């Protein structure tokens, strides 16, 4: 199914939806950070649950699923930075159109200062290997370079990023709302704050403060639009990449207990809704995942893609 998208540079790009009829490979990473001060409880369970779900629901073979968890006895299966990068390269190696690749990450996430201007909020998103204190984190730009840029047109990669600050964890430039609409950079919240600040400054007789607030609004709006343009120009891809993240870039994702088991809230909701109702569109799946979490958690899962998508299509993996 051939489609066309326009990048931020105004250039038309071909892309193709994967039919997911080719090779299936998966990488499931669950990091509890055992013995560390920031220890989690549900991430290893998440990785195991996702592996079982992929085998049961989408026909993946266990032999084609790599597991990295910090309780693994084999050193090569521990989620160190080096092992995670190597496993990601394995996942996308020799990928072909209509292949279906799946990445699941459950662990800590965070942010660091953006250095290339593609983030509207000025921060890159990062994930933390088990040895991050020695080896460092992995930035979303690097994840994009390894997992997205290397894929051919028509190859599907589905990513579940169950971690804090994960909204744009793969740097995919197209994000969708529960109404199925393509989201634009949200300037309203920032604009409201700057205008309120300007109004209060003016009321106090601080004309200079009022002008600084208005100029801050203009600068922020211009910076956000520039970042969006850079992201679409550099991160749009003909590969068929979909990311389901546990929350917005500004939010945290819960490590919790559901159905009597420690789990990540996003991983639980994703598996739960598709197990109950396997046939769902992208939009329905986003709505249902959010609905499961809404009553107990503040996080809002996000759907993003490497090119514009029809959210009414059936989600397949």
Outline the structure in words.
- The chain is of the alpha/beta class and 317 residues long.
- It folds into 2 domains: 2-185 and 232-305, 3-Layer(aba) Sandwich (Rossmann fold), CATH 3.40.50.12660; 188-222, no CATH class.
- It has helices at 43-58, 81-92, 132-135, 140-147, 188-203, 207-235, 265-276, 282-294, and strands at 2-6, 12-16, 24-30, 65-69, 100-106, 109-113, 123-127, 138-139, 156-162, 174-176, 240-245, 255-258, 261-264, 302-305.
- The strands form 4 sheets. A 7-stranded mixed β-sheet has the order 4-3-5-9-11-14-10, with helices on both faces.
- A hairpin with a 2-residue loop joins strand 12 and strand 13 (261-264).
- Helix 7 (265-276) packs across helix 8 (282-294).
- The longest helix has 29 residues, at 207-235.
- The chain is globular and about 50 Å long.
- The two termini are 16 Å apart.
- Keywords: Apoptosis, Hydrolase, Protease, Thiol protease.
The CATH class of the largest domain: Alpha Beta
Q: Tally the helices: what do you get?
A: 8
Radius of gyration equals 20 Å
- Strands ordered across the widest β-sheet: 4-3-5-9-11-14-10
* Overall residue-averaged pLDDT value: 84
Instruction: Indicate the percent of residues in helices.
Output: 25-40%
Question: In CATH terms, what is the architecture of the largest domain?
Answer: 3-Layer(aba) Sandwich
Strand content: 15-25%
User: How many E strands?
Assistant: 14
CATH topology of the largest domain: Rossmann fold
GO molecular function, one term: cysteine-type endopeptidase activity
Domain Peptidase C14 caspase: 23-308
Family: Belongs to the peptidase C14B family.
Keywords: Apoptosis, Hydrolase, Protease, Thiol protease
């Amino acid at each position: 199914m051939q489609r066309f998208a326009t990048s931020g540079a105004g250039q038309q790009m071909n892309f193709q939806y994967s039919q997911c009829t080719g090779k299936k490979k998966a990488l499931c990473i669950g990091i509890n950070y055992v013995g560390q001060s920031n220890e989690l409880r549900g991430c290893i369970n998440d990785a195991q649950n996702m592996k079982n779900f992929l085998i049961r629901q989408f026909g993946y073979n266990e032999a084609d699923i790599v597991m990295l968890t910090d309780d693994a006895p084999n050193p090569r299966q521990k989620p160190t930075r080096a092992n995670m990068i190597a496993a990601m390269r394995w996942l996308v190696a020799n990928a072909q159109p209509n292949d279906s690749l799946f990445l699941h990450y459950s662990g800590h996430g965070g942010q660091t200062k953006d250095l290339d201007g593609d983030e509207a909020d000025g921060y890159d998103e990062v994930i933390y290997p088990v040895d991050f204190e020695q080896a460092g984190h992995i930035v979303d730009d690097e994840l994009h370079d390894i997992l997205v840029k290397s894929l051919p047109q028509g190859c599907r990669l589905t990513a579940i990023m169950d971690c804090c600050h994960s909204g744009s964890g793969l740097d995919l430039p197209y994000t969708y709302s529960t109404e199925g609409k393509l989201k634009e950079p949200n300037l309203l919240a920032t604009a409201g704050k700057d205008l309120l600040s300007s109004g209060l400054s003016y009321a106090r007789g601080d004309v200079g403060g009022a002008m600084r607030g208005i100029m801050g609004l203009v600068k922020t709006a211009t910076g956000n639009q520039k970042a969006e343009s850079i992201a679409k120009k550099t991160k749009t891809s003909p590969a068929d990449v979909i990311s389901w993240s546990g929350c917005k870039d500004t939010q945290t994702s819960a490590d919790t207990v559901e159905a009597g088991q420690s789990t990540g809230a996003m991983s639980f909701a994703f598996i739960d809704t598709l197990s109950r109702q396997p046939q769902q569109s992208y939009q329905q799946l986003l709505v249902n995942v959010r609905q499961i979490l809404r009553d107990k958690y503040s996080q809002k899962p996000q759907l993003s893609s490497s090119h514009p998508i029809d959210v009414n299509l059936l989600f397949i993996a």
